[in-house]
Amino acid sequence: MKYFSMLIKPASSLCNLRCRYCFYCDVAENREIPSYGVMNEETMKILIDKTLDFFREEVTITFAFQGGEPTVAGLDYFRQFIRRVNLKKKSYHYIQYALQTNATLLNDEWIRFLKQNRFLVGVSLDGYALQHDAMRPDAKGQGTFARILENIEKLRQAKIDFNILTVLTRQLAEHPKELFEFYLEHHFDYIQLIPCLPPLEELNDPYFLTPQAFFRFYDEFFQLWLEELKQNHYISITLFDNLIPLFAGVPPQQCGYLGFCSMQFVVESDGSVYPCDFYVLDEYKLGNLRDCSLADLSKSKILSSFLQGPRRSTKLCETCRYAQICHGQCKRLNVCYFDEQFCGYQAFIQKHEAILRQLAMTLRRQA
């Protein structure tokens, strides 16, 4: 069966939080139009109709909503979206929904809707209160930790599948033990830990996760994770979930871990389409769903240029014995992995190679 995923920004870059490091706020500020506002009904219908019409055989389609903050678009937007999909889908269309949210707006009505439509929910939570509130205040400068934790409990009570997305800032990376214990305390077993990016074309950012901070954090965090694993408690962590299978010859789940890009079909609220969430910039616009089919967008010269673009590397890469595992990593994220003098990814693998290979062998036997 084919699989297709579309990443939709129903409220563009609009958000009710003022996170210190927001990469999408930085992206939006580098466009001629920073925000396209909330997606209108006509654009929504075009998006749904063209996606479903494109597939004439069995396919699993995931409509994933991100932002900005997607819930700012309002619950009525999502209800209309679901109704349109249900009206237009065929028997061979298997539809899945995902929502990445700061969870501050998830009232009981939202919870019922997410439950009814089987959404997978990603909740943005930067660890324990002290760290989270310092990085993710609301528009009034108030902390959001307590509200989010309360709404996570609502998700849990409703038995809605959710995971936690934590942005690993330089500040949070100094506290691997506290962060790990926080996850254990709250029984969070599915964690997306993503490195905090610097602004475009700028590395002098106080929150940016440097390669040195990357290594120090994961060196300790991995050992804490292993202790839980020895007690038959597996915690899903993005880096480990993708790196360990590579030692077993199993392709990673996440884009970028093989060093090349793949088309992500990121749709802004005006219907314009981009190849990657990190590059929703005017120069990477492939076209607009109002004017183009998915086939047209897939053949875009801008897309070809983006996918085949040059990769960043250093002299360290030329002699690295792990080059066939790393491949230079994601071209936007790799500034967090290596610089001209040091590669945190290499240092981590080198120190823990034996156990990584052992875990990979176990994975291979279980496959």
UniProtKB/TrEMBL annotation:
<dbReference type="InterPro" id="IPR013785">
    <property type="entry name" value="Aldolase_TIM"/>
</dbReference>
<dbReference type="Pfam" id="PF04055">
    <property type="entry name" value="Radical_SAM"/>
</dbReference>
<comment type="similarity">
    <text>Belongs to the radical SAM superfamily. Anaerobic sulfatase-maturating enzyme family.</text>
</comment>
<keyword id="KW-0479">Metal-binding</keyword>
<keyword id="KW-0411">Iron-sulfur</keyword>
<dbReference type="InterPro" id="IPR023885">
    <property type="entry name" value="4Fe4S-binding_SPASM_dom"/>
</dbReference>
<dbReference type="GO" id="GO:0016491">
    <property type="term" value="F:oxidoreductase activity"/>
</dbReference>
<dbReference type="InterPro" id="IPR007197">
    <property type="entry name" value="rSAM"/>
</dbReference>
<keyword id="KW-0408">Iron</keyword>
<dbReference type="GO" id="GO:0046872">
    <property type="term" value="F:metal ion binding"/>
</dbReference>
<protein>
    <submittedName>
        <fullName>SPASM domain-containing protein</fullName>
    </submittedName>
</protein>
<dbReference type="Pfam" id="PF13186">
    <property type="entry name" value="SPASM"/>
</dbReference>
<dbReference type="InterPro" id="IPR023867">
    <property type="entry name" value="Sulphatase_maturase_rSAM"/>
</dbReference>
<dbReference type="InterPro" id="IPR034485">
    <property type="entry name" value="Anaerobic_Cys-type_sulfatase-m"/>
</dbReference>
<keyword id="KW-0949">S-adenosyl-L-methionine</keyword>
<feature type="domain" description="Radical SAM core">
    <location>
        <begin position="1"/>
        <end position="227"/>
    </location>
</feature>
<dbReference type="InterPro" id="IPR058240">
    <property type="entry name" value="rSAM_sf"/>
</dbReference>
<dbReference type="GO" id="GO:0051536">
    <property type="term" value="F:iron-sulfur cluster binding"/>
</dbReference>
